[in-house]
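Archive entry. Fields below.
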Amino acid sequence: MTASRFFFLFFWVAPHVFQIPIIVIMVRRKMVREFPIFFVYTCFQILQTAVLFTIDQSDRFTGDQYIVCWLAEEYVSVVLRFGVIHEIFQHVFRNYPALQRLGGSLVRWSTVVLMIAAVILVSYSTGTNLDRVTLVLVVVNRAVNIMQVGLLVLLLLLVRYLHLSWSTYVLPMALGLGLYASAMLVNTALQAHFGAFVNLTLTRTIEVSAYGCCVLVWLTGLLLPQPAAKQIETPVIHELEDWNAALQRLLQQ
Amino acid sequence: MIITVLIIATAVLSLLFFVLRGLGAVRTAAGASELTQQIMPVDLEAFRNLTEPLEEEFLRTRLSAGQFRAIQRERLRASIDYLGGVSHNASILLQLGQLARRSPDERIAEAGRRLTDDALRTRLYSMMAICKLGVRYVFPDAALQPGAVIDRYEQVTEAAVRLGRMQHPDRGGLASRAL
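PREDICTED_STRUCTURE:
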């Protein structure tokens, strides 16, 4: 086994090994009920890597069998990632009754708008080396990645604009997924232009590195101590005077 | 090729955005006293006058079409500035409301929840009103009024005063006089 092959296999398997502590922590902290889709996604990722790794290493399976298996897991992962994004939106908006209806409509309409944008972009950006496999494999993936990146960027911008607070662990979840989806968008754009299997090592390296970073962000988010919530104590007199003065200026100037 | 480059550039920018947002998460949030200092004065009456339909109608009948458009644009620019102030203050009140929500005193926490909810609506309404006034700036003859923002803004400031009263009943009267 060459060194590059070893490192490739290492970076392929390592992130999924790091997902095992994520599952353990989630179970121990009783977070499974809170994030059921994320939990299923994490379990699925570990399982599918174990299956694909076995097929890859075993001589009993052909390349075609590997591709069929890989395609199946890709599309299940895509659906689960949309589920995780939906879960993130729900967690962000659930503490704000004023936003609950808006949150639901925002997800629906943004998905529709991003889907239209993705279809337009995909239809106008056919590469020179497109074949049927690329069309099925890459073009659909690229449209999906455009939608996922768009939804996550929109959510982060909205949270920032409205100064909403993130509930525990939701921010690392969104950031990790956003990093991965952005890297995958680069990947699929390259593949759509140059062909699905052109420079496979480069694209697979981008994918496994991005997924590694994503898992590290999730794990760090779980392991870091949660910042203590600042509370408004009964304010001292000068604070309240400042508060009143600010309100007075606000209304009388 | 251009679209592919555009997609890759957008993806790289998104990647940077997520990384920077992740690094930004480490920053500590401002405290209540820091926040109150950031509140900007907003002249609500002046804003009401600027967005008063009768005032606009009066100007429309008294001035030539060209003069009306020029003046109306000035009025709209001023209104957008006021709305920017309202939106900024709503964001401050929103953060104060969120801090209050974590209070162990259930009354203060409840007032904080109400303030957060009202301030959120104000922030959204002011954002929409800015968009509407932006459209009117381009088409000054169109008739769109951001009146709901004023009412909502008053509700938010009232909620802020209620919260102030609960946190310090002895000095709460000062706030009510201010409002």
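CURATOR_NOTE: Chain A touches chain B through 58 residues (CB under 8 Å).
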